Amino acid sequence: HYLRPDGSPYPFEEAPLFEVLRTGQTAQGDEVLIRKDGTQLVVAFIASPIVTDGCRVGAVMVLRDISDRIEQELELKRQRERAEEASRHKTRLVSALSHDARTPLNAVVLAAQLLEIHFNGETDDEVRECLRTIRHSVRNLLDLIGDLLNLSKIDAGVLAPEVSRFPLDLVLAECLGSIETQTRLKGLDVR
Prior knowledge:
By secondary structure, this protein is an alpha+beta fold. The chain has helices at about 15-25, 65-120, 125-155, 170-185, and strands at about 1-5, 25-35, 40-50, 55-65.
């Protein structure tokens, strides 16, 4: 017994093999067949008339089980939907992280600036250096958050990537400066 590809039943007169016998035209497509046990089998078919002495005397139909292909297509669709949902969650997380992390980091920069103003040059060099390190480290974090947002925009196709030159020695000096206090406390020498 046949079902249409959407699973709805139709009479035998509308079945592909009957249509081939009636019209004499080759037909192809997908069908759902019902087995004796009631389970369904999805097949691709091609049916052609058998013509002898100019008369249609029958038809031949070749069926190919496409159940695995259909299941693979459904699995790919499910995986694509999961990936798209994960991407939406990532975008929301990056956006929330950007906003929620920038506010306290800006407060830390402001606090360091206020401490510098409060001491008005009366602090020793080490305190000034620590305050400078705090400001510098927080600005680096803010830049990293901005870069993360840009990567998210590039991933979403909203922003085109841009290749640019930069002075590597300055970047390395910033990196070393950000770990200088930690290395000094551990008695390490980093160059």
